[in-house]
Design a protein that fits this description.
Blueprint lengths: L1 E10 L2 E11 L4 E5 L6 H9 L6 E6 L2 E2 L5 H7 E4 L11 H6 L9 H14 L15 H16 L7 E5 L7 H16 L3 E5 L3 H7 L2 E6 L2 E7 H4 L2 H8 L3 E5 L6 E5 L1
Parallel strand pairs: 3-8, 3-9, 6-7, 7-8
Antiparallel strand pairs: 1-2, 1-4, 4-5, 9-10, 11-12
Helix pairs in contact: 4-5
């Protein structure tokens, strides 16, 4: 789906990302964790083609990312950045419909996709409202619907990159958004999500990359990465890691 080989990104004389190898697989959510300044957003920029890499290569399917024509790439790869803003009073459904611009399936088909994407993002009730009237969390859900619409229905060959999609949301909507992302992955898409909440990562991700100072500190299964020693080394946190009593995934408790 999407893979990176020995990625390095420099800003002037400073190396801000180095030695990153990863692969996003169909049907899985790949989580990226790390403290502020660890290089998480830089990694997303490199994987999306928004940042030039100094060394290494990003592959989308069987082709280097830079060799994809922009429209074809947009049909396969979508990005939700940390901050998405509009200064015009578009209706919610018009914002979501922007995700259909790389496609040429006709107005009726696009309207159906917009409705389905809004439902998947738990934002159907916002339809008809002005984007400018929405709260920060509501806007975030609308933009999630937009990128879902861009890749809808999320079949194999589609890649979704999300940079802290739960940052502006209350606990209920954090879970509803990640449940929507989980459902999108189950349709066959490959998903990468940057998160700060260790327990959200434990519940919704299949694989994790723990980053520190622009490098991969550890990569592997949720159980392999979410352990006291790596979390102490990267975050400086003294934690207990237990099993969720119902779901069985790791549960991180700060001492």
């Amino acid at each position: 789906m999407l893979r990176a080989e020995n990625l390095e990104v420099r800003r002037g004389a400073r190396c801000v990302l180095q030695g990153i190898d990863l692969q996003l697989r169909a049907g899985e959510i790949f989580g990226v964790l790390g403290p502020n300044g660890a290089g998480k957003s830089t990694l997303l920029g490199a994987l999306s083609g928004e940042l030039a890499v100094t060394t290494g290569q990003v592959w989308l399917a069987d082709r280097p990312l830079h060799r994809w024509p922009s429209r074809e790439r947009a049909q396969r790869l979508a990005v939700l950045p940390q901050q998405s803003s509009l200064s015009f009073g578009f209706r919610v459904e018009e914002v979501v419909a922007m995700g259909r611009l790389p496609h040429a399936e006709g107005r009726a088909a696009d309207l159906l996709v917009v409705e389905q994407a809004l439902a998947a993002a738990d934002a159907s009730h916002l339809e008809g409202r002005s984007y400018l009237s929405l709260s920060g969390g509501e806007r975030q859900r609308v933009h999630l619907a937009r990128v879902l619409a861009q890749l809808w229905p999320g079949a194999e060959g589609r890649v979704l990159l999300l940079d802290e999609p739960t940052s502006a949301l209350d606990p209920l909507h954090q879970h509803s958004i990640l449940q929507a992302v989980r459902g999108f992955a189950e349709r066959g898409a490959a998903v990468m999500v940057i998160l700060h909440d260790l327990n959200l990562a434990a519940r919704y991700c299949d694989q994790l990359l723990l980053m520190d100072d622009g490098q991969a500190h550890m990569q592997g299964s949720v159980e392999a990465v979410l352990r006291p020693d790596p979390l102490r080394e990267v975050f400086g946190l003294d934690v207990l890691v237990q099993r969720h009593p119902e779901r069985g995934h790791p549960l991180v408790v700060v001492r």
